[in-house]
Amino acid sequence: EMLQEPNQSHKKEFTLDSSSQTAEKVLQYAEKSSEFDKFSHGKDIVTKPLTKNRKNASAGEGNKFTAHQQDKTIKISNTKDIQHSSTNDNTLSGALSNVFDNVANNSRLPVDETEKEKSGLPTSFNNLADFSTYRHMSDIPVFWHIPKAGGTTIKAIFGSCLQFTMACEVGQRKEYSDNSPLAVIEADGHKYANVDTTTPRGIAVAKSLNLAESGIADIIVTNYVHEISDLFTKERKGRIFTMLRDPIDRAVSMFGYLQYADWEPGHTSKLASMSIDEYARSNMVENNWMTRFLSGHMSGELTSEDLIKAKTVLREKFLIGILDYKEESWSRIQAYYGLEVSSRTTPHRWECIQRQLKTGSNINHFSKSKITPGSETHSLLLWQNKFDMQLYSFGKEIFNNQGNHIKNVAAIQAKVKASTGS
């Protein structure tokens, strides 16, 4: 079943500071933009060019401009509600960033007020940028790695193809991590920060070494969303994404992987000799992994409130990728983070990425386990993942709705970059 992107009408507003210079720059940007057909100044509709109203438009308080973009209307009110100390290109970028909030609000799923009251996210989550907000150069990409959901392929793309310096589990290696100052190390031909961001203890060490502020990590990989949020600051926020996979398929793949992966903590000789049916009946099977890690409720019985919290985090903070749509997912990741890769300008990197998307990394070639929908084994795995199944369905809805936003963000980011030269 193909996921369809919504086609809805939008009407949103944002406020610009009262500087005439900034208003002038916005008009110049809008006039050159191919996205906008006409503008209004006060009650007067002005078509391109905007020269006849340029003088009035750049005056002080009270001017209003409305930009019509196909089915979208954005009203820019020039008021004194927001004051800036200077009127430079960053002011323009900051003003235009509000467009992202407004367009993105239309790609969000409706929020049930009861759920909103129960969501209660920790204050540290303020250090993770909301999905809908403008991406600043200081934002650090964060990858929430769900086991057996395409994460190793994503890491290979960033590490091998893009040559990013990663903070991940490689930093746990003894020769790099014991009482060492923060540094970039090389292992297996790739660059890493010498900290482990995949464990709570490692994240605490990374925080003590000011990993986020240092800027040495181009991307941070983790399983622990709550702990990692505390790593960042208001000035250096994390911007997070993930890849989701059907929880039942993931459970079967995890079983097959742990049967032979004797280097993993979850591997045992007992599990290695089990059938998938025995595994589903055992206490070794995972229980709602995604819901637990997103809600922070790692042990004990989960409740509907934990699911609400997990949904809230996913909706507000994450760019969503879906393993079944990995090419489209990567396209969105690339656009969202402003990664400039193409077959024309960077052919080697582009070819490397295409290979990874086609063949993958750490694919489980050993598991021959198959389960039949409706079987006892399927029902047992479904029961163990009942919250994750709901979360996955919700994630697919978010994926659907994020498509249009990503396109708008990419277009506006490109125009802001061209306008500011940054």
Structure description:
This protein has 422 residues and is α/β, with parallel strands linked by helices. It folds into 2 domains: 10-106, Structural Genomics Hypothetical 15.5 Kd Protein In mrcA-pckA Intergenic Region, Chain A (Roll); 117-164 and 218-416, 3-Layer(aba) Sandwich (Rossmann fold). The chain contains 18 helices and 12 strands. The strands form 3 sheets. It has a 5-stranded mixed beta sheet with strand order 1-5-4-2-3, with helices on one face. A 5-stranded parallel beta sheet has the order 7-10-6-11-12. A two-stranded antiparallel ribbon has the order 8-9. A hairpin with a 2-residue loop joins strand 4 and strand 5. Helix 4 (113-119) crosses helix 14 (304-317) and helix 14 (304-317) packs parallel to helix 18 (386-420). The longest helix has 35 residues, at 386-420. The chain is globular and about 60 Å long. The model is unreliable at 1-26 and 31-104 (pLDDT under 50).
